[in-house]
Amino acid sequence: MDTKTQDILLRIGGVVLLVIIFGVPAVIVPMAMKDVPERSETKTLTTYQEAINIVQRSFDRHELNHGKRRLMPLPENSAGWIRLINPMGRKAPGGGFAILEQPNRETGTIGLTGSRDAVTIRLPAYRSLTQQSTTIVMGNQ
User: Fold this and answer.
1) Which pLDDT belongs to residue 68?
2) Are 85 and 132 within one domain?
3) In what order do the strands lie in the sheet with 99-100?
4) Both 41 and 97 in a single domain?
5) Which domain holds residue 123?
6) What's residue 15's pLDDT?
7) Domain count, the chain
8) Do 80 and 133 reside in the same domain of the chain?
9) What is the pLDDT of residues 74-126, one digit of tens each?
10) How confident is the model over 20-43, as pLDDT tens digits?
11) Considering only CA atoms, which of 131, 130, 132, 141 is closest in space to residue 62?
12) Domain match, 70 and 22 both
């Protein structure tokens, strides 16, 4: 093989290598970052179910305790319940906090209102999810 052919092959190899290094990630990364509706809906539904479970467990613990051990007092208002359920301020799929007093169907934010006696958790009609509401009352466990 002469030097001219080797030079051409070397340049072609360099171009192919550059395409592999820069071109493939340029196509794959945006595809991986694309919003997947199922992932967003799953996140909203999981937050809703976790909120129900935490409220239910909190009421159960206080109801079954009968003064046997010291428990942290139940939250007295909606803001207290939201802090208990979402202490790290997780985000909703569409942005903003995952749990607020009013649900938001645009962002997938769960709605929660409550007191020491009852808590209502509302799942918004986010994307293909159906709007739901669950009320948990102290003493009805």
Assistant:
1) 74
2) yes
3) 99-100, 110-114, 118-123, 132-137
4) yes
5) 37-137
6) 84
7) 2
8) yes
9) 999 999 999 999 999 999 999 999 999 999 999 999 999 999 999 999 999 99
10) 887 777 777 776 666 666 889 999
11) 141
12) no
